[in-house]
Amino acid sequence: MPPRANWKGFLRLSLVTCPVALYPATSESEKVSFNQLNRKTGHRIKYAKVDADTGEEVDNEDIVKGYKVDTDTYIEVTKEELENVALESTRTIEIDEFVDRSEIDPRYLIRPYYLVPDGKVGHDAFAVIRETIREMNKVAIGRVVLTNREHIIALDPLDKGLMGTLLRYPYEVRSEKEYFDEIQDVKVTKEMLDLAKHIVDQKAGRFDPDKFEDQYETALIDLINQKRAGKPITAKARPRGENVVDLMDALRKSIGREAAAATEAPKKSGKKPRKAAAGQKEMLMPIAGKKPAKEAAAKKPAVKPQRKSA
Predict the structure, then answer these.
(1) Facing residues of 150 across strands?
(2) What is the radius of gyration, based on Cα positions, of the chain?
(3) Across-strand partners of 250?
(4) Most trustworthy range by pLDDT among 58-62, 139-143, 214-218
(5) Could you give the CA distance from residue 81 to residue 61 in angstroms, rounded to a whole number?
(6) Consecutive H or E run containing 110
(7) Are 174 and 234 in contact (CB under 8 A)?
C-alpha cells in the first residue's frame, strides 16, 4: 500500500495547471526503534502535557501555540489565525524560475519528495511541464506549504514523474567562515599529492547504494536477537585511531594495504554482500518487555509486535 500523500494541490507553470500530489521519497520506518521503559516494572513510559505552574494535565483542546516575547510573556496564536495566513503556495506550487542544477549549493538541500499527477485528469499538463524542464536541462524552483510553513522546492524530472527537493532559506545555513578560519594554511607537496591520488585510484568505484549496509542497524539487531535468546553480551573492542608521525610513510603504507586488499577481493567475490534491508528481516519475533520475576510468573501477557518487519 503506497504511503499517504503529504500534500495535494496544483502545479502551475504560467497558465498551465494540473492537480498533483506530493509523497515522501524516503522512509526510516525500517530502522530499529526503542521505547522508553520503567526499569522496575518493564512498563512503557507515558508522557503527559501538564501546566508548567500548576502541574495539572492539560487537554489537547485547551492547548494553543504561543510565541515567547519575554521571560513570562507569550503571544497566543490560534489555529484559525494561522489558517488565515493566506499563502498561494498553500494549495499551489507556482514555478517562479528555472536555474542550472550546478548552481544549487548542496547545503541548501533538505529532503526529497515524489510529485505525481493527482487523479485521472491533468496528465497532459503534467507531462508538458515535466518534459519542458527535462529538455531545458534546468531545475524548476517553486514554493509549497508543508506543516504550516512555506518551503522552497526544486523540481527535477525523474522517470515519468518529478522529484521535488525542499531547500533551506539563507538564514538557515551557517557560514563556513565560522568554522574554517582557524584551519592552518598548509602547502601540500606534489609527492604527497601523487601518493594520495594513487590511493584514490585504487579505491575508485561506482556509486551503488545496494552495496551500502547500515552496520549499526545490523549490530542492533544482532544485540536484540542475542538478548532474546538469552546469550551473554560481551563488549567489543573499539577501534583506536593512531597519531600520524610520518605522513609520507603513512601514505606509502596505505598504498600497500589497498593493493593487498585488491588482490584478496576476487577470492571473496563468491560471497554476496548483504544488502542494507536484509538485517531487518532477520528479526522475526517481537521482544517482550522486561517484567519482575514474580509478576512474570503470575501473569504472562500476550506478545505484541513493536514494529512491522520489512
Answers:
(1) 145
(2) 27
(3) none
(4) 139-143
(5) 16
(6) strand 109-117
(7) no
Contact indicator for 22, 143 with CB cutoff of 8 Å: no
Q: Any residues with CB less than 8 A from the CB of 117 and at least 6 apart, and which?
A: 18, 19, 20, 21, 123, 126
pLDDT in tens, 33-79: 899 999 999 999 999 999 989 999 999 889 999 999 988 899 998 88
Averaged pLDDT score across all residues of the chain: 82
Please give the Cα distance from 113 to 21 (Å, whole number): 10
Residue with cell 517482550: 288
Residues 6+ apart with CB under 8 A from 29: 307, 308
Q: How far apart (Å, rounded) are the C-alpha atoms in residues 286 and 173?
A: 41
Q: Let me know how long the chain is.
A: 310
What tens digit of pLDDT does each residue of 247-279 get? 778 778 888 777 777 777 666 555 454 444 444
Round to whole Å and give the CA distance between 284 and 296. 23
The model's pTM: 0.70
CA–CA distance, 158 with 104 (Å, rounded to integer)? 17
- Give every CB contact of residue 161 below 8 A, 6+ residues apart in sequence: 114, 115, 116, 130
38, 45 Cβ separation under 8 angstroms: yes
- β pairing state of 139-146 and 65-70: unpaired
Dig out the grid coordinates for 210 from the structure: 545496494
Q: How far is CA 255 from CA 241, 264, 299, in A?
A: 18, 15, 62
DSSP structure class, residue 307: S
| 92 Cβ neighbours under 8 A, 6+ residues apart | 9, 10, 11, 12, 17
Position of cell 544488502?
Answer: 275
What's the mean pLDDT in 108-112?
A: 96
* Whether the Cβ atoms of residue 95 and residue 101 lie closer than 8 Å to each other: no
How far apart CA 141 and CA 99 sit, in angstroms, is 7
Mean pLDDT of 290-310: 42
